[in-house]
Write a structure and sequence with these properties.
Number of domains: 2
Bound molecules: protoporphyrin IX containing FE
Mean pLDDT: 86
Distance between the termini: 75 Å
Strand order of the largest sheet: 1-2
Low-confidence stretches: 372-404
CATH superfamily of the largest domain: Transmembrane di-heme cytochromes, Chain C
CATH topology of the largest domain: Fumarate Reductase Cytochrome B subunit
Order of helices and strands: HHHHEEHHHHHHHHHHHH
Strand content: under 5%
Helix content: 55-70%
Structural class: mainly alpha
Number of helices: 16
Number of strands: 2
Radius of gyration: 34 Å
Length: 404
């Protein structure tokens, strides 16, 4: 039941987010708010939020090396080291990180436990999850890079290259080809298909739906909303205009670019002729940007700061000294016994030294060494005794007692 609430909650939240600019721009004409103020506020939240989180993470102490070690570490020359899964130096770490960030290597090796006939436990390779994750992330990246054409003048050559690669099929949407529908750009549809897979995977697997939260569904629905409004603007708008002369969505790309250029050049402007659908697209993007630093999407930044990935395993090669090793005040067993000796003897607890021996020793020490031992020195010596005393001390003193 909880999962239905999680899905409904996220769905309603995204629906409300679509309605806000629809009413705000469509009915109330608040174009400055939705075209300038909210995008700037969102960008500010995005950058400040990321900086704050990164500072927070970098303040966490990493007192020793905790890399995930998935293979043989560097040891004797005749034992082969697994340089990627147990790197001992920066090169190995860079290789490991690059494969993780660019190809999601650990996800590639991910397996799912399942019950099979018998009943038996089996492990299923999650290859579809890996493929969908790659499709989602690369689809997203390509769409963002292509969008640079709205934010740059002249448009860099690599944006044109990416666009022609992405549209290599050189066709309109198959059944609509010839209806003035712009050439199909694959990445937007790949992105939408990957999002659908990631959502259905949560929905159809009993184990995953059980652990899924609104924080998992919300970003999926939000990005689906962004992609769908983008696709509506690019294809449906042109199709409707051509076929029915019906300017239902009314998005002039040139005007949209003027708005985008105004934002990046800090000379914001609101050109005429941009339909509400564009403001919905922009508003959802703004919400995604503002939500990003406080969500699980921060894994995009966090992966680089993850000590289980970005540290080499050189604990046996290099001596790591704790940099904040301040002198710790310890209470040794010896001091403890000095404090409570009489009471211990009274109740019959074993002691290392009987009161008279301790008093004699104290006198001798005072005569030999008039000055006090510095606190620093004291710290190390008795600590050893303290460790030994709880087990050895008792036996020792019993022996002494017997002798006495
Ligand atoms: C998270 C960021 C964004 C994503 C994921 C996204 C996604 C998309 C997608 C999938 C399309 C469909 C066409 C295509 O595949 O290119 C699209 C179209 C469009 N997007 Fe975005 N978008 C984002 C941000 C923006 C921003 C910030 C703006 C402008 C300020 C913008 C303006 C447009 C416009 C004008 C179109 C229509 C393009 C056309 O008619 O050729 N988008 N968007």
């Amino acid at each position: 039941m909880n999962f239905i609430i999680g899905i409904l909650f996220s769905l309603i939240a995204v629906t409300i987010l679509v309605l806000i600019p629809w009413v705000g721009v469509g009915a109330l004409d608040l174009r400055v708010l939705f075209g300038i103020i909210i995008p700037y506020a969102a960008l500010l939240t995005f950058f400040l939020g990321i900086i704050t989180r990164v500072i927070g993470w970098s303040r966490s102490p990493v007192p020793f090396r905790i890399p995930t070690t998935g293979g043989q570490q560097k040891s004797l020359p005749w034992i082969r080291q697994n340089k990627l899964d147990n790197p001992s130096g920066p090169l190995g770490v860079i290789g490991r990180m690059a494969l993780e960030v660019l190809l999601f290597r650990s996800l590639f090796r991910h397996t799912r436990m399942e019950f099979r006939e018998g009943p038996k436990i089996g492990y299923e390779w999650e290859k579809w999850l890996w493929i969908a994750a790659l499709a989602f992330h690369y689809g997203f990246l390509v769409v963002i890079l292509r969008h640079l054409r709205f934010f740059t003048e002249p448009i860099p050559a690599f944006v044109h290259w990416i666009e022609s690669l992405d549209g290599f099929l050189e066709m309109g949407i198959a059944p609509l080809a010839g209806f003035a529908v712009p050439g199909l750009l694959l990445s937007g549809f790949v992105l939408l298909a990957a999002l659908a897979f990631l959502f259905l995977r949560r929905l159809l697997s009993p184990q995953i739906i059980y652990i899924s939260l609104p924080a998992d569904y919300f970003p999926l629905f939000l990005i689906m909303g962004i992609v769908t409004t983008g696709i509506l603007m690019r294809y449906v708008d042109a199709f409707m205009q051509y076929l029915f002369k019906w300017d239902v969505l009314s998005v002039e790309v040139v005007q949209a670019k003027a708005l985008a250029m105004g934002l990046v050049s800090f000379h914001p402007t609101i050109p005429e002729g941009i339909g509400t659908i564009f403001y919905i697209h922009l508003f959802l993007v703004s919400i995604l940007a503002a939500y990003f630093p406080f969500s699980k999407l921060m894994h995009m930044v966090g992966i680089f700061l993850s000590p289980t990935r970005n540290l080499s395993n050189n604990s046996r090669i290099v001596r790591h000294i704790n940099p904040w090793d301040y002198p710790v005040k310890v209470h040794t067993y010896e001091e403890y016994e000095d404090e409570f000796r009489e009471k211990m003897v009274e109740v019959g607890s074993p002691v290392e030294k009987m009161p008279e021996t301790a008093a004699g020793e104290a006198q001798d020490t005072a005569a030999e060494k008039p000055q006090d031992t510095p606190a620093e020195e004291k710290r190390d010596v008795p600590a050893t005794k303290a460790q030994a005393s709880p087990s050895e001390g008792g036996a020792d003193s019993t022996e002494k007692k017997e002798k006495e």
